[in-house]
């Protein structure tokens, strides 16, 4: 495992490997579970949470994971989408977030779950504004985007099909 990601995931191996599992202590928070699932023909999965990771950790872990487990992908596009979605979860919600990146049968899925039921709201930023473009960036780079309600808030899902993210393969 890379020393830069001591609490995150290992992206090698061919069997389920639980790196950390701690029961929830606060109501409404997801379990602190990090797993890499890899099997012959099976899914490759990375999960990290806000309990021990920040936005930079999410970007670095995603870059490493997609670079190793992903089908032919534009890693930088996926990392930018992760950065925008996790940043939105940090800035616009209260509580925890969980990032799940999975690859199965040449389909790459990024799920960012958070404690808010409010969907992302597109904004029209001023030309000189520093922020306000994240949701538009996500929509441009992913093949499809969904906002899915769940029992603790919502999941924002970005999906790339076969080939490079952002291409219509």
Automatic annotation (TrEMBL):
Skewed-composition ranges (Basic and acidic residues): 16-35
Histidine kinase/HSP90-like ATPase domain: residues covered: 50-160
Keyword Cell inner membrane: no
Keyword Transferase: yes
Disordered, as annotated region: 16-41
Record keywords, A-Z: Kinase, Serine/threonine-protein kinase, Transferase
PANTHER family registered for this protein in UniProt: ANTI-SIGMA-F FACTOR RSBW, ANTI-SIGMA-F FACTOR RSBW-RELATED
Annotated protein name in UniProt: Histidine kinase/HSP90-like ATPase domain-containing protein
Provenance organism: Streptomyces pristinaespiralis (strain ATCC 25486 / DSM 40338 / CBS 914.69 / JCM 4507 / KCC S-0507 / NBRC 13074 / NRRL 2958 / 5647)
Phylogenetic classification of the source organism: Bacteria, Bacillati, Actinomycetota, Actinomycetes, Kitasatosporales
